[in-house]
Design brief:
Helices cover about 70% and strands about 0% of the residues. It is mainly α. Helix 7 (about 105-135) runs antiparallel to helix 15 (about 305-340). The chain is globular and about 75 Å long.
Length: about 500
């Protein structure tokens, strides 16, 4: 066995009594996130622009069967969060899945998990500031301001919020989520009222007849529904934030199970329920990828100002995503820096116990997004969004692999599983991993964007391998120091 493997095994086999904290990157954080913050972070992670904006184009392509696609993808997303929730209760850590990858897969696993997650959120951050700039241009007051200026202002505002304190981050996410939930609930009441009163929408009587008279549940066949899943699965990205945020709450053993379990019914209510309502109100052909489906419905019944209200909500969703990305990557990078696999400055914390080094590194990448908004404003969003998809799939796959190893060690008596468990292991993990890889493979059917994105995988792999060899000595030194501290 190699020296690296021996060191990793030694670190991983420590008992709870001998490691405090288990991850050096967990030291120094406040515990200011409350139950309401965690619950709303869970909701905010499950509701975003993928529903408010993306559902229109998907309804047009897949028809009413989109609800089935959201349900299937939602179940697998729930499995991922449930597995992560079990790992959190085993050992809460702000390093989250990177910390668990270090314990169960070794430093190489943690290195890949961390940098792929950074790739996900840094590129998502670029997409978010681009979206914020585009949504802000909706109002005539802002149209004269260059897109790149609005993107830079949005980044500066969210950066300031993140650097103040974790409590301010939690409050911001809490209210962002409130806005999104209130909007969906209001729309669902409107939709149910239209169905109950049989009020005509665009000259059609809402109900099952809208579906049966326009090609049924699968108006374009099964294949469009299968293909649309590659986009649907990414609508659930950010659910793993629950695991990161748990490291900064005082009672994770009480808060996390409630937050994780509530995700399932929220997915059913908000995603599946709203898509079913949309399908019952108007045919899929009426919806468009250029407009929120909720705006489409409201405009058809003569609600003036619906576009402005929904634009504000979508803007809020993008701000929430950017806020979450800076928060999570700051914590993940600190965990990596303490192990030697990220720049040293990303381990630094300010007086408010915020890991500002990692947050600033993510912001530095987002500044590239500001440049994209300057040079190619019309293409900036698509360029980065597809790169982010590679990061989220790899993150979720690594979470499930970590859980597989965790369960295997528990059966060997090396660790103890908490009572809050992922059901039907290892079948659940294997099925989820297979499903995620199939969704990734489906991107090949999109020659314009998806195929080019998949061709980036060898490039990313080369960069990861090169980075590992550049950092390997420092990682070994960090591991040896930790072992030395344990033996004192």
């Amino acid at each position: 066995m190699s020296k690296d493997a021996v060191n990793t095994a030694a670190v991983a086999s420590r008992t709870d009594a001998t490691r405090a904290p288990a991850d050096a990157g967990d030291a120094g954080y406040s515990k200011d996130l409350k139950a309401r913050h965690i619950n709303m972070i869970a909701i905010g992670g499950a509701i975003g622009t993928g529903l408010f904006l993306g559902a229109g184009g998907r309804l047009h392509n897949a028809g009413p069967a989109l609800a089935l696609a959201y349900l299937v993808c939602g179940v697998f997303a729930f499995f991922v969060v449930r597995a992560l929730g079990e790992l959190v209760l085993y050992r809460p850590s702000s390093g989250s899945f990177v910390s668990y990858a270090r314990e169960f897969l070794g430093e190489k696993g943690a290195y890949v998990a961390g940098w792929m997650y950074f790739l996900n959120w840094s590129t998502t951050g670029i997409a978010d500031i681009t979206a914020i700039a585009l949504y802000t241009h909706y109002w005539s007051f802002f149209t004269s301001i260059p897109q790149w200026v609005l993107a830079l202002i949005a980044l500066a505002v969210v950066l300031a919020v993140n650097l103040i304190s974790v409590k301010i981050f939690g409050e911001m996410e809490f209210w962002f989520a409130i806005i999104k939930v209130a909007t969906l609930v209001a729309f669902m009441f409107v939709g149910i009222f239209l169905l109950a009163t049989q009020h005509e929408v665009d000259g059609r009587t809402p109900g099952l007849g809208v579906i049966t008279d326009n090609g049924g549940i699968f108006p374009h066949g099964l294949m469009p529904v299968v293909l649309v899943m590659q986009g649907v699965i990414f609508a659930y990205a950010a659910l793993e934030l629950v695991g990161v945020a748990a490291g900064e709450t005082a009672e994770p053993e009480k808060i996390v199970p409630r937050a994780v379990n509530s995700i399932m019914w929220r997915v059913g209510l908000f995603y599946v329920g709203s898509v079913v309502l949309l399908a019952l109100l108007l045919p899929g052909s009426v919806y468009s990828g250029d407009e929120s489906p909720f705006v489409t419905v409201l405009s058809k019944i003569g609600v003036h100002g619906a576009g402005g209200v929904m634009n504000l909500v979508v803007l809020t969703a993008a701000m929430s995503s950017l806020n979450s990305g800076l928060y999570s990557t700051g914590r993940i990078l600190r965990s990596m820096a303490m192990a030697g696999s990220a720049p040293k400055f990303t381990a630094r914390m300010n007086r408010s116990q915020v890991p500002y080094g990692g947050i600033l590194l993510t912001c530095a990448v987002c500044v590239i997004g500001v440049a994209l908004n300057y040079f190619v404003p019309s293409q900036a969003f698509e360029i980065v969004l597809n790169v982010a998809s590679l990061g989220i799939v790899s993150t979720w796959v690594i979470i499930m692999i970590c859980h597989l190893v965790f369960v295997r060690r528990a059966r060997a008596g090396q660790v103890t599983r908490p009572s809050f468990r992922l059901p039907a292991s290892p079948v659940t993990e294997i099925a989820t991993i297979a499903f995620l890889l199939v969704c990734l493979g489906l991107m090949w059917n999109d020659p314009e964007v998806g195929r080019k994105t998949l061709l980036l995988i060898p490039v990313i792999a080369v960069l990861l391998v090169g980075g590992w060899f550049a950092l390997r000595r420092r990682i070994e030194d960090a591991t040896n120091r930790e072992l030395s501290d344990l033996t004192k």
